[in-house]
Amino acid sequence: MPTKAAPPDQVASPKFIHSSYDGRLDFFEVKFAAALAALRRTALSKESKESERETTLPDDPDAIDKIQTSEPGFNPLNSEKYSDPMYRIRMRTAINALPDDQRQVLILDWAGVPFTSNDPAVTTIGSIVGCGEQAARQKRDRAHKAVRIALEGDDQ
Fold first, then answer.
1. How far apart are the first and last CA of the chain?
2. At the top level of CATH, which class does the domain 77-155 belong to?
3. Distances (CA, A) of 1 to 4, 11, 82
4. How confident is the model over 12-43, as pLDDT tens digits?
5. Are 31 and 39 in contact (CB under 8 A)?
6. Is 116 helix (H, G, I), strand (E, B) or coil?
7. What value, to the nearest 5°, has the Cα angle with vertex 63 and ends 111 and 73?
8. Burial, 144: exposed, middle or buried (Cβ in 10 Å; 0-12, 13-18, 19+)?
9. Where are the domains of the chain?
C-alpha cells in the first residue's frame, strides 16, 4: 500500500526542522565555513600572483624581434665595447677578482660546457665544479652580476 507524503506545510514547519536539528553541528558548520573562506583566499592569491607574472608583448614588430633575438643574461664578451683594450683589461680584472668557483663556472659557461645533459658520458659544469645544476646556475648569475657591477662602476 503506498505511503502518503507529509503535506508541505508540515515539512517546512519550524517544529519539524527544530526536532531534527542538532546543536552540536554548529562547531562543524563554523569550521567548514572558515575552511571554505581560507580556500577561496588561497585560490584568489594564487590567481593574482600568476596574473602579476604575465606581461603583454608590445604590438611593435621591431620590439618583438628584439625580444626574440635577445640573449638572456649578461655576457661582457658580446658588448660593443669589447674591441676597446681598456674594457678588456677591466673585464679581466673583474673576472680575476671573483671567487674561484664563480670564475670557473663563468669561464666554463662561456666555453660552451652544458649545465645539464641526459647523457652520463657528457661532462657538465656541475660535475667539474662539484655542485648541482641549480647551484652552478646561481654561481654563474652571481658572477655575471659582480662583473656587470664592476664594469658599470668603471664607466662612471
1. 100
2. mainly alpha
3. 10, 22, 99
4. 555 555 556 666 667 777 788 888 889 888 88
5. no
6. coil
7. 25
8. middle
9. 23-51, 77-155
* Distance between CA atoms of residues 143 and 94, nearest Å: 9
Residue 113: alpha-carbon gap to chain centroid: 24
Q: Which residue has the cell 658588448?
A: 79
| Cell numbers describing residue 45 | 592569491
- Rounded Cα distance, 19 and 14, in Å: 8
Residues in the chain: 156
What pLDDT does 2 receive? 55
pLDDT in tens, 33-76: 888 889 888 888 888 777 776 666 566 666 655 554 444 555 56
pTM of the model: 0.48
